[in-house]
Write a structure and sequence with these properties.
heterodimer; A: mainly beta; 4-stranded antiparallel β-sheet; B: 6-stranded mixed β-sheet; globular
């Protein structure tokens, strides 16, 4: 089945540690996105990538880093510089075309900093 | 700047009632796209509908219907004869233009609870 997988589902981190969230898609989509969701709020864009080896900062990129070495993969690293990393993280992908297409989302990773 | 406002933070109704979720947007783009997503308790966002700015026709899909009015910058979502399985957080989102990253701007979401 085609789709987006994120792992792990739950992640616990001690303060001062970096942690990497995985996002893999087999939809053959070029564009991928990372969002952060805080309780009672909408999604905010962290980073996005339209093509392999290229990515751009979103609205809240500080304290995060990404890589896009393969079309299928777009991992997100939450660094110790992120002041308040506890949140729900969602990865999405989209097949770019002339007309805007919807983004498809993974199941999310819930990160808790202890 | 683009903005999406979902003024209803939470809505609670009894099963079989009709319910409308409001969405108001702001954009300077002449071409833009509007979306609705459903987020059940599992957390994954599920795509429901996309509408472009040139198409103001309302759409009906089963118990779901959408009313797009450019004059009031609104894209409201109605569930008819609601069911417990409709309980979720619903997000309205906006994206501008044909090209580029077509980033989505989300509203804050409306938590809908359908009581049996």
């Amino acid at each position: 089945d085609g789709g987006i997988t994120q792992s792990p589902k739950y992640l616990f981190r001690k303060e001062g540690q970096n942690v990497t969230l995985s996002c893999e898609q087999n939809l053959n989509h070029d564009a991928m996105y990372w969002y952060r969701q805080d309780p009672g709020q909408g999604l905010r864009l962290i980073y996005y990538s339209q093509i392999v080896n290229d990515f751009q900062k979103g609205d809240i990129a500080e304290g995060y880093s990404v890589s896009r070495e393969k079309k299928e993969s777009f991992p997100l690293t939450v660094t110790s510089a992120q002041k308040n990393p506890t949140a729900f993280y969602l990865c999405a992908s989209r097949h770019p075309g002339m007309w805007v297409n919807e983004q498809f989302f993974g199941p999310g990773t819930r990160l808790t900093v202890l | 700047a683009q903005k999406v406002t979902q003024a209803q933070t939470e809505i609670s109704v009894v099963e079989k009632e009709d319910v409308t979720l409001d969405c108001v947007y702001e954009t300077r783009d002449t071409t833009y796209y509007l979306f609705w997503y459903k987020q059940p308790p599992s957390g994954e966002l599920v795509f429901l509908i996309r509408r472009n700015s040139f198409d103001e026709q309302n759409e009906i899909s089963g118990r779901y219907s959408w009313n797009f009015q450019k004059s009031t910058s609104s894209f409201n979502f109605t569930i008819t004869a609601s069911q417990v399985v409709d309980s979720a957080v619903y997000f309205c989102a906006l994206s501008g233009g044909f090209q580029g990253a077509q980033k989505l701007v989300f509203g804050q979401g409306t938590r809908l609870t359908i009581n049996p």
